[in-house]
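Q: What would this chain look like folded?
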Amino acid sequence: MKQYKYFAFISYSRRDSDTAKWYHNKLEHFHVPAKLPPLPDGEPIPKPLRFFRDKTDLNVSSDTFTADLKQAVADSQFLVVLCSPNAAQSNPDGRHYIDWEINEFIEIHGKDYALTHILPVVIDGVICSGNPETECMPHALRDLGDEFLQHNFPILEKSGGRQEMESSKNVFVMQTLSFLLSMDY
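A: My prediction, written as structure tokens:
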């Protein structure tokens, strides 16, 4: 049984950095109940949960950036993709790290594993809208097919007042954790 350094790798657009920072903090500070059974694949649930986010876990140098990022993907049991119109669009220079990270996860772990260990979470936009202004799914996720895209993904609701938004954020985090920990929520 492989021991992973990170429970999940968080992939996101730099333009969504504030949301990624908030989300990462909420996930890592979740207190895992002591009596949870192992994951369906037999892996024990790590305590505490460690989530990789490049701004906190990656030593950036021009010589090793890609290799270090690839190693972090390999060291992660799950891949969580923050989906938004920003995440679905390529960078102006044509490079798109989100698609690269998704494809690396699939290549390293295998497609069958990836299909059950990639979790898209919608922070903005519309799933498979076909409109570049609202489309939130990166190309590499859309390439996984319609069956994959028809799952019930966590969606961050952004309507209502302050109290409703806080409640929505908590539900969003719990939906993510319930998927990753194979729990009902």
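The first helix runs from residue 17 to 28.
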